[in-house]
């Protein structure tokens, strides 16, 4: 059975007003679809159109040309806008623009209250969301007293607690420390796997894309590449030309095969280490 | 400039119900000319520590010396010496305010009463360090630039002060790999050329491994480790309990060493990626001993 598409972009264009009053094209006819229940990573350098893509997904922006469907609903349908935004939760890079509550748990509760979630269920969801971002000890803390990274974890908890069908992480891990990043990615994966939530992770860290179902690479307002992480990351030269990085393991293998050593393509350290040790021991 | 901290503590909101010890008995020595990587979990005190360097915060107790300047709870850094310490905050682009890029970068030098032609020369040089062309950028509005360009302009504003100590609080957060590299390579170049003392706060173990020759590890307001990167990265378990990690190079080497006989182990000092790859190539091409 063909997987159902949750998000579909057909020939989507978008531009904004440039410095000299001219229109600057940010998206130049993007076609893509994101399957229900999938974990998709979007890579691309600053200015490639990634964030515009994200904002179009929950109708924060509307396409200039073309059409975007969220579960079959056109994002241009003004009457459905709140329904679309409930479906498509978005976590931004800067947490200071997202925090509204007087305490951490109030902040997480904000969206749930708006949705009219039952108080008992609300309590469960808040506790679980805070636990999974490692902020359970701060439930009663005042958000303004938290550091930037902690605030982001609270903001992510707030979105996660809403359990939308799609969660878009728009560089949401950019400011977190290594473990914070891991926790957030782990949480996103778990929600994807166990709750069937579709995840779109827009990121600069190629390592975060390794275990995705699909990787979409944006370049200059167009989809440059898309496919399984192995298909995309095996094209090292093409990615580097686009100013993008590849995961460490891919980089190391690329350097070694360039010198004529025979190593199969791998995305994870374990596998490359195995091949490399065999090569080192049998040379 | 050599920097020393002698038993420095800092308490936020002292004497109020909200008082919180953010730095606890920090003692450290940073030799002049060092490139220091500061790592630690969010909230570990990294930002509090560096804000002591240019007088934004004064210690609650203890003593800081920067070159010949002494900072104590009762003795602030003299205004004229503040320009020696350039502090680049997190998201420095939020502090851009002028009409043009040139005016924004010149603001600091002019504020310290440098003649306009010299301020302009400094702006030109500073923009070029961060990889921006002065002529094409100078008349543009900083608010019409891309995020990465804004970041670079903001950093140039600090470099234009020609500080002797450069302190950067996560200068590459949120940038793409090409932008991160361009900024850090520029900074590393002037660090060497102008013999600066540079402190880089970062969440990226890879950045710390690549540039730092000394590392400070913060946790819960305390300095828990200081040393050369290879010394710090050998404490992988401790780093993980502090919510930190080792660079991928280090975990890669330790995985390899688990699978190789002891006499074939890779040296754990190869935490820089280029050095690791060069070593692997050398090992692969060398005829097998024994």
TrEMBL record, chain A:
One of its GO terms (molecular function) is ATP binding. Residues 7-245 form the ABC transporter domain. It is found in: Cell membrane. GO terms for cellular component: ATP-binding cassette (ABC) transporter complex. Keywords: ATP-binding, Cell membrane, Membrane, Nucleotide-binding, Translocase, Transport. SMART domains: AAA. It holds the Pfam family ABC_tran. Its main location: membrane. It is a peripheral membrane protein. Belongs to the ABC transporter superfamily. NCBIfam families: ECF_ATPase_1, PRK13648.1. PANTHER family: ENERGY-COUPLING FACTOR TRANSPORTER ATP-BINDING PROTEIN ECFA1 (PTHR43553:SF24), HEAVY METAL TRANSPORTER (PTHR43553). This is Energy-coupling factor transporter ATPase. The lineage of its organism: Bacteria, Bacillati, Bacillota, Bacilli, Bacillales.
From TrEMBL, chain B:
GO terms for molecular function: ATP binding; ATP hydrolysis activity; ATPase-coupled transmembrane transporter activity; cobalt ion transmembrane transporter activity. It comes from the Bacteria. The keyword Nucleotide-binding applies. Its EC number is 7.-.-.-. GO terms for cellular component: ATP-binding cassette (ABC) transporter complex. Keywords: ATP-binding, Cell membrane, Membrane, Nucleotide-binding, Translocase, Transport. Belongs to the ABC transporter superfamily. Energy-coupling factor EcfA family. Forms a stable energy-coupling factor (ECF) transporter complex composed of 2 membrane-embedded substrate-binding proteins (S component), 2 ATP-binding proteins (A component) and 2 transmembrane proteins (T component). This is Energy-coupling factor transporter ATP-binding protein EcfA2. It comes from Brevibacillus invocatus.
């Amino acid at each position: 059975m063909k997987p159902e598409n949750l998000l579909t972009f057909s020939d989507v264009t978008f531009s904004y007003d440039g410095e000299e009053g001219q229109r600057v094209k940010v998206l130049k006819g993007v076609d893509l679809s994101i399957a229900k229940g999938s974990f998709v990573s979007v890579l691309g350098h600053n200015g490639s159109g990634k964030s515009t893509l994200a904002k179009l997904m929950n109708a924060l922006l509307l396409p200039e040309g073309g059409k975007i469907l969220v579960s079959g609903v056109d994002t241009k349908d003004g009457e459905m806008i709140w329904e679309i935004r409930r479906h498509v939760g978005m976590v931004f890079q800067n947490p200071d623009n997202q925090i509204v509550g007087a305490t951490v748990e109030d902040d997480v509760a904000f969206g749930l209250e708006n949705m009219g979630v039952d108080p008992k269920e609300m309590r469960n969801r808040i506790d679980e969301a805070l636990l999974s971002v490692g902020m359970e000890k701060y439930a009663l803390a005042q958000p303004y007293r938290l550091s930037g990274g902690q605030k982001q974890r609270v903001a992510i908890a707030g979105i996660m607690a809403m359990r939308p069908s799609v969660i878009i992480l728009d560089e949401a891990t950019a400011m977190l420390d290594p473990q914070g990043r891991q926790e957030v990615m782990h949480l996103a994966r778990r929600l994807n796997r166990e709750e069937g939530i579709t995840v779109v992770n827009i990121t600069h860290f190629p390592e975060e894309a390794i275990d995705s179902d699909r990787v979409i690479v944006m370049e200059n307002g167009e989809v440059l590449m898309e496919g399984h992480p192995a298909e995309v990351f095996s094209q090292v030269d093409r990615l580097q030309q686009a100013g993008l990085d590849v995961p460490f393991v891919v980089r190391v293998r690329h350097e070694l095969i360039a010198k004529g050593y025979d190593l199969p393509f791998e995305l994870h350290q374990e596998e490359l280490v195995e091949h490399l040790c065999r090569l080192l021991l049998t040379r | 400039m050599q920097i020393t901290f002698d038993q420095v503590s800092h308490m936020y909101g002292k004497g109020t119900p909200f008082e919180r010890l953010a730095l606890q008995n920090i003692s450290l020595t940073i030799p002049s000319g060092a490139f220091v990587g500061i790592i630690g979990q969010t909230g570990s005190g990294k930002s509090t520590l560096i804000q002591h360097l240019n007088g934004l915060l004064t210690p609650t107790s203890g003593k800081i010396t920067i070159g010949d300047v002494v900072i104590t709870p009762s003795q602030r850094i003299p205004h004229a010496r503040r320009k020696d310490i350039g502090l680049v905050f997190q998201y420095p682009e939020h502090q851009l305010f002028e009409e043009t890029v040139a005016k924004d970068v010149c603001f600091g030098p002019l504020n310290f009463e440098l003649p306009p032609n010299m301020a302009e020369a400094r702006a030109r040089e500073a923009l070029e360090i961060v990889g921006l062309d002065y002529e094409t950028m100078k008349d543009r509005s900083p608010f019409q630039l891309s995020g990465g360009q804004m970041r670079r302009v903001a950093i140039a504003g600090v470099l234009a002060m020609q500080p002797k100590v450069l302190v950067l609080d996560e200068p590459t957060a949120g940038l793409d790999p090409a932008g991160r590299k361009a900024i850090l390579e520029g900074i590393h170049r002037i660090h060497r050329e102008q013999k600066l003392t540079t402190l880089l706060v970062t969440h990226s173990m890879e950045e710390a491994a690549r540039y730092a020759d000394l590392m400070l590890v913060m946790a819960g307001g305390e300095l828990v480790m200081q040393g050369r990167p290879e010394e710090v990265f050998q404490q992988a378990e401790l780093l993980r309990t502090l919510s930190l990690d080792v660079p991928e190079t280090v975990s890669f080497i330790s995985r390899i060493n688990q699978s190789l006989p002891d006499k074939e182990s890779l040296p754990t000092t190869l935490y820089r990626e280029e050095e690791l790859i060069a070593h692997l190539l050398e090992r692969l091409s060398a005829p097998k001993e024994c």
